[in-house]
Amino acid sequence: MLMAFFIKLVVLFQGYAICQHLILDLLLMWIVTDQFMVDFLMDKYLSETYHLHRILLIYFLQKLPMNPLL
């Protein structure tokens, strides 16, 4: 189910040249449990530009549970 969510994100953002690094950063933020690293990556998005897709990614990320495998 979670993989389907990421596939939908890929499809949703496939028109953007930055799609690949956005999805990889999203996966990284989901895997990382260190709050400092998560905050650092969030600040990275917020400091670049307030594009709608970045804000949506942050919103969806906050709705995801932390990685249950760790």
Provide the number of structural domains: 1
Individual helix count: 4
User: How do the SSEs run, as a string of H and E?
Assistant: HHHH
Helix-strand makeup class: mainly alpha
Number of beta strands: 0
What is the end-to-end distance? 18 Å
Major beta-sheet overview: none
What is the radius of gyration? 12 Å
> What is the share of helical residues?
over 70%
> What global shape is seen?
globular
Mean pLDDT: 62
- How much of the sequence is in beta strands? under 5%
- Unreliable runs: none
Structural account:
The structure is a single chain. It is built from 4 helices and no strands. The protein is mainly α. It has one domain (2-63). It is globular.
Structure, briefly:
The protein has 70 residues and is mainly α. Helices cover 71% and strands 0% of the residues.
Question: What features would you highlight for this structure?
Answer:
mainly alpha; 70 residues; globular
